[in-house]
Amino acid sequence: AMLRLRLLTWDVKDTLLQLRRPVGESYAAEAQAHGVRVQPEALSRSFREAYRAQSQRFPNYGRGRGLSSHQWWVDVVKQTFRLSGVQEERVLTLMAENLYHDFCGAGNWEMLPGASETLSRCHQRGFRMGVISNFDNRLEKILSHCNLRHHFEFVLTSEEVGFAKPDKRIFQKALCLSGVPPELVAHVGDDYTRDYSAARAVGMHGFLLRATGRGAEPEVPPEHILPTLSHLLTLIEK
Predict the structure, then answer these.
(1) Whether the predicted model's global pTM rises above the 0.90 cut
(2) To which protein family does this belong (predicted)?
(3) With DSSP H G I counted as helix, E B as strand and the rest as coil, what are the percentages for the chain, rounded to 5?
(4) 179, 173, 166: which is closest to 6 by C-alpha?
(5) Which of 2-6, 36-40, 132-136 has the lowest average pLDDT?
């Protein structure tokens, strides 16, 4: 039987958009513009470490902890460079501000295969659509710059809502905003815990984007797995 769905909600990072190049490469290019030479691989490692530490200390971009997400990210970028041996405060601040703004633009992002045409086709079939993403408040800008914003009725970020997936409350906020009951909603994302099982926990349907070859969790029936985004409509209309 064809799934009766009225609303599709979407994760963004690594579901619709991905970084064009590793973080370390973008950071190394910024450093080079200031005459500072750092290896991209070292920066990628330092970034993971700085990001993890900051996320543990100030979850959800410091929301509710007196930190703006802008300040949260500036601290992560500066710490990434410090861990890679760059210490001069003036240069750190300059690079951090530049990179914070750079990641708003389309230049650092690219669409996943099938993203654009899948969204257009879902739109044509009359599905209402929204975004549920653990992202900071730059997401609206990023979606606009990548020419995707117009597909969505709402864009919910964890920073704005105050709760991050897999917290039920960010999904409940989407249901409340749309007025669509959960059994008529499907959430599409690439993370088993934050996207697939979290959506199902509130009674929504879930589709898990999984590149072939990546081991799927045993609890996910094959008809909920998307090898690519282009498989979505086929699965819905089965």
Answers:
(1) yes
(2) Belongs to the HAD-like hydrolase superfamily.
(3) 50, 15, 35
(4) 179
(5) 2-6
